[in-house]
């Protein structure tokens, strides 16, 4: 993408953000599905769909908990968290997105939304949160920390703001997820197979997704952590099911695969049949399209 194309894309997105702000000012959550149907645009689906809540709708948050949400975007998940806990603090770097979040969740008296990135706001954050939520923000660690291991630093820094027994919840893509083998464009760089090829040729871009093993390696290099993986399907953005190592999918169960809303894709094979083969081999966790990760300090 050249400079002109990038500028045009940014201008179009800003216009859509302005339109989205007007929508949340004029309509309620009950109207969003109708608006999505009328717009027929991934932008509005992504920011307004109630399916976005599914990533944490089921999670057993403590009712008296304080939560920090990092990179809240337009609040698609924020409201879900606020409905479940005592207090939520949300950070969003883009001020227009922060306004949209505040407006759509204006009736939630337990919510505070601030403009700012985690690294710039860190010194102002409290140190007694019960949960820190990162839905889609873990890949941005190099934007926050300039050291050699920004992903390690991000997690260790987050723990400085948790009370004893607190948890970090991370929702992220799997760079070797099934959809990327089948022909979906890589989420971070909008191209084919870059994550599968370990981002070779993207030396100037520091953001990345990880495989399950790579995430485990990061966590094991940080001492005394306990962690658990969950597997959102089809992915963490629009999950219809959340699997775990205690309950993995059965053959023929993963049939909602052609869900590419925002860009063109290839279709190199039947993903349902491929998933069946992976499930039969006991490898579904490695090829899950996304992860939801719970991390806490060990005893």
UniProtKB/TrEMBL annotation:
A Gene Ontology molecular function term of the record: methyltransferase activity
GO BP annotations listed: methylation
UniProt cross-references to SUPFAM superfamilies, sorted A to Z: S-adenosyl-L-methionine-dependent methyltransferases
InterPro entries: SAM-dependent_MTases_sf (IPR029063)
Keywords associated with the record: Methyltransferase, Transferase
CDD domains according to UniProt: AdoMet_MTases
Protein name, UniProt field: Class I SAM-dependent methyltransferase
């Amino acid at each position: 993408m050249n400079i002109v194309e990038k500028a045009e894309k940014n201008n179009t997105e800003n216009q859509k953000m302005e339109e989205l702000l007007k929508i949340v000012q004029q309509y309620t959550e009950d109207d969003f599905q109708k608006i999505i149907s009328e717009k027929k645009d991934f932008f509005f689906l992504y920011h307004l769909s109630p399916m976005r809540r599914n990533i944490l709708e089921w999670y057993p948050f403590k009712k008296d908990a304080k939560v920090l949400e990092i990179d809240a975007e337009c609040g698609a998940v924020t409201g879900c968290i606020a409905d479940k806990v005592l207090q939520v603090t949300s950070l969003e770097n883009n001020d227009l997105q922060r306004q949209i979040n505040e407006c759509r969740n204006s009736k939630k008296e337990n919510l505070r939304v601030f403009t700012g990135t985690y690294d710039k706001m860190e010194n102002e954050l409290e140190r007694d949160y019960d949960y820190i939520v990162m839905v889609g923000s873990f890949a941005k660690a190099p934007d926050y920390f300039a050291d050699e291991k920004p992903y390690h630093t991000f997690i260790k820094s987050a723990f400085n703001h948790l009370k004893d027994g607190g948890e970090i919840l991370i929702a992220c893509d799997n760079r070797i997820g099934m959809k990327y083998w089948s022909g979906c464009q890589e989420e971070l760089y909008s191209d084919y197979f870059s994550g599968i090829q370990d981002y070779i040729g993207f030396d100037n871009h520091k953001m990345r997704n990880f495989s399950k093993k790579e995430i485990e390696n990061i966590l094991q290099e940080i001492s005394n952590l306990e962690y658990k993986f969950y597997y959102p399907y089809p992915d963490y953005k629009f999950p219809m099911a959340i699997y775990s190592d205690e309950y993995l999918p059965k053959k023929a169960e993963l049939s909602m695969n052609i869900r590419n809303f925002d860009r063109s894709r290839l279709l190199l094979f039947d993903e349902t049949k491929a998933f069946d083969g992976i499930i039969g081999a006991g490898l579904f966790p490695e090829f899950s399209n996304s992860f939801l990760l719970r991390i806490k300090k060990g005893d």
